[in-house]
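[job 4471] stage=fold_predict status=RUNNING
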Amino acid sequence: MSQGWVDEGFGAVADTFAENFSLFPELGAAVSVHAGGRKVVELWDGEAAPGRSWSEETVVPVFSCAKGLVSIVVHRLAQEGRLDLDVPIGTYWPEFVAGGKEEISCRMVLGHRAGIPVLDKKLTFEEIAAWDPVVAAIEEQKPLWEPGTTYEYHGHVFGFVLGEVVRRITGQLPGAYFRTSIGDPFGLRAWIGLPAAEVPALARLEEAEGRPPLPDPEHLLMRIVTMNGALVFPGLDVPHGWNDPELLAMELPGAGAVASATGLAGVYAAAITGIDGSEPLLTSETIGDALREVSSGAGFLGFDAGVRWGSGFLLNSAFRPTLGPRSLGNDGAGGQFAFGDDDYGIAFAYTTNRMLGHGDPRATRLITALRTCLD
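[job 4471] inference complete, writing C-alpha coordinates
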Protein backbone atom coordinates (compact mmCIF):
# COMPACT_ATOMS: atom_id res chain seq x y z
CA MET A 1 0.00 0.00 0.00
CA SER A 2 1.34 3.42 -0.98
CA GLN A 3 2.68 5.73 1.71
CA GLY A 4 2.12 9.48 1.84
CA TRP A 5 -0.92 11.59 1.07
CA VAL A 6 -2.88 13.48 -1.61
CA ASP A 7 -5.12 16.53 -1.32
CA GLU A 8 -8.81 16.19 -2.03
CA GLY A 9 -9.40 16.07 -5.76
CA PHE A 10 -6.13 14.31 -6.59
CA GLY A 11 -7.22 10.76 -5.78
CA ALA A 12 -6.85 9.66 -9.41
CA VAL A 13 -3.09 10.19 -9.13
CA ALA A 14 -2.97 7.98 -6.05
CA ASP A 15 -5.05 5.29 -7.78
CA THR A 16 -2.79 5.30 -10.84
CA PHE A 17 0.36 5.24 -8.75
CA ALA A 18 -0.92 2.12 -7.00
CA GLU A 19 -1.95 0.57 -10.34
CA ASN A 20 1.55 1.05 -11.71
CA PHE A 21 2.83 -1.39 -9.11
CA SER A 22 0.41 -4.05 -10.35
CA LEU A 23 0.76 -3.37 -14.09
CA PHE A 24 4.55 -2.96 -14.32
CA PRO A 25 7.56 -4.53 -12.59
CA GLU A 26 7.93 -1.56 -10.24
CA LEU A 27 10.49 -1.95 -7.47
CA GLY A 28 10.34 1.40 -5.70
CA ALA A 29 8.91 4.71 -6.87
CA ALA A 30 7.59 8.10 -5.82
CA VAL A 31 5.45 10.87 -7.29
CA SER A 32 5.17 14.47 -6.13
CA VAL A 33 2.98 17.32 -7.40
CA HIS A 34 2.85 21.00 -6.51
CA ALA A 35 -0.16 23.12 -7.50
CA GLY A 36 0.08 26.87 -7.20
CA GLY A 37 3.29 26.53 -5.22
CA ARG A 38 1.74 24.19 -2.64
CA LYS A 39 2.34 20.46 -2.44
CA VAL A 40 -0.82 18.47 -3.23
CA VAL A 41 0.57 14.96 -3.91
CA GLU A 42 3.34 13.16 -2.03
CA LEU A 43 3.36 9.38 -2.55
CA TRP A 44 5.97 6.63 -2.36
CA ASP A 45 6.04 2.85 -2.22
CA GLY A 46 8.23 -0.19 -2.65
CA GLU A 47 11.87 -1.02 -2.06
CA ALA A 48 14.71 1.49 -2.28
CA ALA A 49 17.40 -1.16 -1.80
CA PRO A 50 17.45 -4.74 -0.48
CA GLY A 51 16.11 -4.63 3.05
CA ARG A 52 15.28 -0.89 2.91
CA SER A 53 11.87 0.57 2.02
CA TRP A 54 11.39 3.68 -0.06
CA SER A 55 10.70 6.83 1.97
CA GLU A 56 9.92 10.47 1.33
CA GLU A 57 13.65 11.18 1.69
CA THR A 58 14.82 8.54 -0.81
CA VAL A 59 16.93 9.85 -3.66
CA VAL A 60 17.74 8.08 -6.92
CA PRO A 61 19.82 8.79 -10.03
CA VAL A 62 17.52 10.67 -12.40
CA PHE A 63 19.96 10.80 -15.34
CA SER A 64 19.04 13.50 -17.88
CA CYS A 65 16.54 15.20 -15.60
CA ALA A 66 19.80 17.02 -14.80
CA LYS A 67 19.28 18.99 -18.02
CA GLY A 68 16.23 20.64 -16.47
CA LEU A 69 18.23 21.81 -13.47
CA VAL A 70 20.99 23.22 -15.68
CA SER A 71 18.50 24.83 -18.06
CA ILE A 72 16.68 26.62 -15.23
CA VAL A 73 20.03 27.98 -14.00
CA VAL A 74 20.97 29.12 -17.52
CA HIS A 75 17.63 30.82 -18.17
CA ARG A 76 17.80 32.56 -14.81
CA LEU A 77 21.26 33.93 -15.65
CA ALA A 78 19.82 35.19 -18.94
CA GLN A 79 16.88 36.76 -17.11
CA GLU A 80 19.33 38.55 -14.81
CA GLY A 81 21.16 39.99 -17.82
CA ARG A 82 24.34 38.04 -17.11
CA LEU A 83 24.05 35.78 -20.17
CA ASP A 84 22.75 36.22 -23.71
CA LEU A 85 21.60 32.87 -25.08
CA ASP A 86 21.97 33.96 -28.70
CA VAL A 87 25.49 35.38 -28.82
CA PRO A 88 28.50 33.13 -29.52
CA ILE A 89 29.70 31.13 -26.53
CA GLY A 90 33.15 32.57 -27.23
CA THR A 91 31.86 35.81 -25.70
CA TYR A 92 32.11 34.11 -22.31
CA TRP A 93 34.63 31.36 -23.08
CA PRO A 94 37.09 32.56 -25.74
CA GLU A 95 38.92 29.23 -26.11
CA PHE A 96 35.67 27.50 -27.12
CA VAL A 97 35.63 28.87 -30.66
CA ALA A 98 38.50 26.76 -32.09
CA GLY A 99 37.74 24.20 -34.79
CA GLY A 100 34.78 25.92 -36.41
CA LYS A 101 32.68 26.69 -33.31
CA GLU A 102 32.74 30.49 -33.70
CA GLU A 103 28.97 30.83 -34.22
CA ILE A 104 27.73 28.31 -31.64
CA SER A 105 25.48 29.91 -29.02
CA CYS A 106 24.02 28.61 -25.79
CA ARG A 107 20.66 28.45 -27.59
CA MET A 108 22.13 25.96 -30.07
CA VAL A 109 23.39 23.79 -27.22
CA LEU A 110 20.07 24.04 -25.36
CA GLY A 111 18.31 22.90 -28.56
CA HIS A 112 20.90 20.17 -29.30
CA ARG A 113 21.87 21.92 -32.57
CA ALA A 114 25.51 22.78 -31.84
CA GLY A 115 26.99 19.86 -33.83
CA ILE A 116 29.06 18.56 -30.92
CA PRO A 117 26.95 15.73 -29.42
CA VAL A 118 30.07 13.66 -28.75
CA LEU A 119 33.80 14.30 -28.38
CA ASP A 120 36.47 12.76 -30.59
CA LYS A 121 38.88 12.54 -27.68
CA LYS A 122 38.51 9.46 -25.45
CA LEU A 123 38.71 10.58 -21.85
CA THR A 124 39.14 8.40 -18.77
CA PHE A 125 36.71 8.32 -15.86
CA GLU A 126 39.25 10.26 -13.79
CA GLU A 127 39.63 12.92 -16.49
CA ILE A 128 35.86 13.36 -16.69
CA ALA A 129 35.66 13.68 -12.92
CA ALA A 130 38.38 16.37 -13.02
CA TRP A 131 36.24 18.60 -15.33
CA ASP A 132 39.08 20.61 -16.93
CA PRO A 133 40.18 17.78 -19.28
CA VAL A 134 36.63 17.69 -20.68
CA VAL A 135 36.71 21.45 -21.18
CA ALA A 136 40.00 21.14 -23.07
CA ALA A 137 38.57 18.37 -25.27
CA ILE A 138 35.51 20.51 -26.06
CA GLU A 139 37.78 23.37 -27.08
CA GLU A 140 39.56 21.07 -29.56
CA GLN A 141 36.38 19.51 -30.93
CA LYS A 142 35.21 20.17 -34.50
CA PRO A 143 31.44 20.08 -35.14
CA LEU A 144 29.99 16.99 -36.82
CA TRP A 145 27.72 19.25 -38.90
CA GLU A 146 27.37 22.95 -39.58
CA PRO A 147 26.07 24.30 -36.26
CA GLY A 148 22.41 25.21 -36.34
CA THR A 149 21.48 23.18 -39.43
CA THR A 150 20.19 20.03 -37.72
CA TYR A 151 20.07 18.53 -34.24
CA GLU A 152 20.99 15.45 -32.27
CA TYR A 153 20.80 14.78 -28.55
CA HIS A 154 23.91 16.23 -26.93
CA GLY A 155 23.88 13.84 -23.95
CA HIS A 156 26.75 14.71 -21.64
CA VAL A 157 28.30 17.45 -23.80
CA PHE A 158 25.15 19.56 -23.23
CA GLY A 159 25.95 19.79 -19.53
CA PHE A 160 29.68 20.33 -19.84
CA VAL A 161 29.37 23.18 -22.38
CA LEU A 162 26.60 25.01 -20.54
CA GLY A 163 28.23 24.16 -17.21
CA GLU A 164 31.51 25.76 -18.26
CA VAL A 165 29.61 28.88 -19.36
CA VAL A 166 27.98 28.94 -15.90
CA ARG A 167 31.43 28.61 -14.33
CA ARG A 168 32.86 31.44 -16.45
CA ILE A 169 30.01 33.74 -15.35
CA THR A 170 29.53 32.74 -11.69
CA GLY A 171 32.87 31.23 -10.66
CA GLN A 172 31.14 27.99 -9.63
CA LEU A 173 30.64 24.65 -11.36
CA PRO A 174 26.98 24.20 -12.36
CA GLY A 175 26.07 21.73 -9.62
CA ALA A 176 27.54 23.97 -6.95
CA TYR A 177 25.85 27.06 -8.40
CA PHE A 178 22.52 25.22 -8.56
CA ARG A 179 22.80 24.42 -4.85
CA THR A 180 23.87 27.98 -3.98
CA SER A 181 21.12 29.69 -5.97
CA ILE A 182 18.20 27.22 -5.87
CA GLY A 183 18.75 23.94 -4.02
CA ASP A 184 19.91 25.26 -0.66
CA PRO A 185 17.61 28.32 -0.41
CA PHE A 186 14.54 26.12 -0.99
CA GLY A 187 15.84 23.06 0.87
CA LEU A 188 15.40 20.84 -2.21
CA ARG A 189 16.67 17.27 -2.29
CA ALA A 190 18.23 17.48 -5.76
CA TRP A 191 21.94 17.55 -6.61
CA ILE A 192 24.37 17.45 -9.50
CA GLY A 193 27.13 15.81 -7.50
CA LEU A 194 25.66 13.79 -4.61
CA PRO A 195 27.09 14.68 -1.17
CA ALA A 196 28.54 11.76 0.78
CA ALA A 197 26.08 12.44 3.60
CA GLU A 198 23.17 11.57 1.28
CA VAL A 199 24.47 8.14 0.21
CA PRO A 200 22.49 6.30 2.94
CA ALA A 201 19.26 7.63 1.37
CA LEU A 202 20.23 6.48 -2.14
CA ALA A 203 17.98 3.99 -3.95
CA ARG A 204 19.60 1.14 -5.85
CA LEU A 205 18.82 0.97 -9.57
CA GLU A 206 17.73 -2.36 -11.10
CA GLU A 207 17.10 -3.21 -14.74
CA ALA A 208 13.82 -4.78 -15.77
CA GLU A 209 14.07 -8.11 -17.57
CA GLY A 210 13.60 -8.07 -21.31
CA ARG A 211 14.99 -4.61 -22.02
CA PRO A 212 15.71 -4.31 -25.76
CA PRO A 213 19.38 -4.67 -26.72
CA LEU A 214 21.42 -1.51 -27.12
CA PRO A 215 23.45 -0.62 -30.24
CA ASP A 216 27.11 -1.54 -30.62
CA PRO A 217 29.37 0.50 -28.26
CA GLU A 218 30.96 2.26 -31.27
CA HIS A 219 27.58 3.41 -32.58
CA LEU A 220 27.34 7.20 -32.38
CA LEU A 221 24.33 6.98 -30.05
CA MET A 222 26.25 4.87 -27.54
CA ARG A 223 29.30 7.11 -27.80
CA ILE A 224 27.01 10.04 -26.94
CA VAL A 225 25.48 8.43 -23.85
CA THR A 226 28.72 6.87 -22.54
CA MET A 227 31.27 9.56 -23.44
CA ASN A 228 33.07 7.06 -25.68
CA GLY A 229 32.69 4.23 -23.17
CA ALA A 230 34.12 5.95 -20.10
CA LEU A 231 30.64 6.07 -18.50
CA VAL A 232 29.07 2.66 -19.09
CA PHE A 233 25.34 2.42 -19.79
CA PRO A 234 23.23 1.05 -18.34
CA GLY A 235 26.17 -0.27 -16.31
CA LEU A 236 24.62 -0.54 -12.86
CA ASP A 237 26.78 -2.96 -10.88
CA VAL A 238 30.21 -2.40 -12.40
CA PRO A 239 33.04 -0.15 -11.23
CA HIS A 240 32.03 3.47 -11.87
CA GLY A 241 28.49 2.33 -12.75
CA TRP A 242 25.28 4.18 -11.97
CA ASN A 243 24.91 2.60 -8.53
CA ASP A 244 28.44 3.71 -7.59
CA PRO A 245 28.50 6.71 -5.21
CA GLU A 246 31.85 7.72 -6.72
CA LEU A 247 30.18 8.28 -10.09
CA LEU A 248 27.18 10.03 -8.56
CA ALA A 249 29.44 12.39 -6.60
CA MET A 250 30.86 13.78 -9.87
CA GLU A 251 29.50 16.89 -11.55
CA LEU A 252 27.86 15.35 -14.62
CA PRO A 253 25.46 18.17 -15.47
CA GLY A 254 24.13 16.55 -18.64
CA ALA A 255 22.93 13.30 -17.11
CA GLY A 256 24.14 12.91 -13.53
CA ALA A 257 21.52 14.42 -11.22
CA VAL A 258 20.34 12.60 -8.09
CA ALA A 259 17.05 13.65 -6.52
CA SER A 260 13.95 12.71 -4.62
CA ALA A 261 10.58 13.12 -6.34
CA THR A 262 9.63 15.95 -4.01
CA GLY A 263 12.98 17.66 -4.59
CA LEU A 264 12.70 17.41 -8.35
CA ALA A 265 9.10 18.68 -8.37
CA GLY A 266 10.21 21.44 -6.02
CA VAL A 267 12.79 22.66 -8.54
CA TYR A 268 10.09 23.22 -11.15
CA ALA A 269 7.69 24.68 -8.59
CA ALA A 270 10.35 27.17 -7.45
CA ALA A 271 10.94 28.09 -11.10
CA ILE A 272 7.38 28.55 -12.36
CA THR A 273 5.15 29.41 -9.37
CA GLY A 274 7.37 29.88 -6.37
CA ILE A 275 6.92 27.72 -3.28
CA ASP A 276 4.62 28.63 -0.39
CA GLY A 277 4.36 32.25 -1.46
CA SER A 278 7.87 32.88 -2.79
CA GLU A 279 8.31 34.69 -6.09
CA PRO A 280 8.88 32.41 -9.10
CA LEU A 281 12.51 32.15 -10.16
CA LEU A 282 11.55 32.58 -13.83
CA THR A 283 9.22 35.21 -15.26
CA SER A 284 6.45 34.39 -17.70
CA GLU A 285 8.54 35.98 -20.45
CA THR A 286 11.56 33.81 -19.62
CA ILE A 287 9.39 30.69 -19.61
CA GLY A 288 7.90 31.73 -22.94
CA ASP A 289 11.40 32.07 -24.38
CA ALA A 290 12.29 28.58 -23.13
CA LEU A 291 9.11 27.19 -24.70
CA ARG A 292 9.79 28.36 -28.26
CA GLU A 293 10.46 25.25 -30.33
CA VAL A 294 14.11 24.99 -31.37
CA SER A 295 14.34 21.40 -32.64
CA SER A 296 11.97 18.65 -33.71
CA GLY A 297 11.77 15.73 -36.11
CA ALA A 298 14.13 12.84 -36.67
CA GLY A 299 17.44 14.67 -36.26
CA PHE A 300 20.97 13.68 -37.34
CA LEU A 301 20.64 9.98 -36.44
CA GLY A 302 17.02 9.65 -37.51
CA PHE A 303 15.72 8.69 -34.03
CA ASP A 304 13.00 10.20 -31.84
CA ALA A 305 10.97 11.71 -34.66
CA GLY A 306 8.22 12.72 -32.23
CA VAL A 307 10.45 14.76 -29.89
CA ARG A 308 10.10 18.54 -29.62
CA TRP A 309 12.78 20.62 -27.90
CA GLY A 310 12.58 24.15 -26.61
CA SER A 311 15.66 25.79 -25.13
CA GLY A 312 16.86 23.05 -22.82
CA PHE A 313 13.50 21.41 -22.19
CA LEU A 314 11.29 18.78 -23.75
CA LEU A 315 8.02 20.28 -24.94
CA ASN A 316 4.59 18.68 -24.95
CA SER A 317 4.38 16.09 -27.74
CA ALA A 318 2.94 12.71 -28.59
CA PHE A 319 6.33 11.25 -27.65
CA ARG A 320 6.32 12.90 -24.23
CA PRO A 321 2.79 14.12 -23.41
CA THR A 322 2.43 16.57 -20.52
CA LEU A 323 -0.36 19.05 -19.80
CA GLY A 324 -0.22 21.45 -22.72
CA PRO A 325 1.72 24.09 -24.65
CA ARG A 326 3.16 25.74 -21.52
CA SER A 327 4.69 22.51 -20.17
CA LEU A 328 8.47 22.17 -20.08
CA GLY A 329 10.52 19.38 -18.54
CA ASN A 330 13.10 16.62 -18.94
CA ASP A 331 13.13 12.87 -18.57
CA GLY A 332 15.72 10.40 -17.35
CA ALA A 333 16.92 7.08 -18.76
CA GLY A 334 15.41 5.04 -15.94
CA GLY A 335 11.86 6.27 -16.52
CA GLN A 336 12.01 9.37 -14.36
CA PHE A 337 10.30 12.53 -15.53
CA ALA A 338 9.75 16.04 -14.19
CA PHE A 339 8.12 19.13 -15.66
CA GLY A 340 6.42 22.40 -14.84
CA ASP A 341 3.48 24.18 -16.47
CA ASP A 342 2.77 27.81 -15.61
CA ASP A 343 -0.67 27.78 -17.28
CA TYR A 344 -1.84 25.17 -14.81
CA GLY A 345 0.55 26.22 -12.02
CA ILE A 346 1.68 22.58 -11.79
CA ALA A 347 5.06 21.04 -11.04
CA PHE A 348 5.35 17.24 -11.30
CA ALA A 349 8.02 14.62 -10.72
CA TYR A 350 8.11 10.83 -10.83
CA THR A 351 11.16 8.84 -9.75
CA THR A 352 11.80 5.10 -9.83
CA ASN A 353 14.64 2.62 -9.40
CA ARG A 354 13.30 -0.01 -11.85
CA MET A 355 14.63 0.87 -15.30
CA LEU A 356 12.28 -0.03 -18.14
CA GLY A 357 12.93 0.42 -21.85
CA HIS A 358 12.02 2.93 -24.54
CA GLY A 359 8.41 4.10 -24.35
CA ASP A 360 8.09 3.49 -20.60
CA PRO A 361 4.49 4.54 -19.83
CA ARG A 362 4.57 4.88 -16.03
CA ALA A 363 5.06 8.66 -15.77
CA THR A 364 2.70 9.27 -18.70
CA ARG A 365 -0.08 7.36 -16.93
CA LEU A 366 0.39 9.52 -13.83
CA ILE A 367 0.30 12.71 -15.90
CA THR A 368 -2.89 11.52 -17.62
CA ALA A 369 -4.46 10.96 -14.20
CA LEU A 370 -3.26 14.40 -13.06
CA ARG A 371 -4.89 15.98 -16.11
CA THR A 372 -8.25 14.41 -15.22
CA CYS A 373 -7.97 15.92 -11.73
CA LEU A 374 -7.26 19.38 -13.15
CA ASP A 375 -9.97 19.18 -15.81
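[job 4471] summary: The longest strand covers residues 38-49.
[job 4471] exit 0
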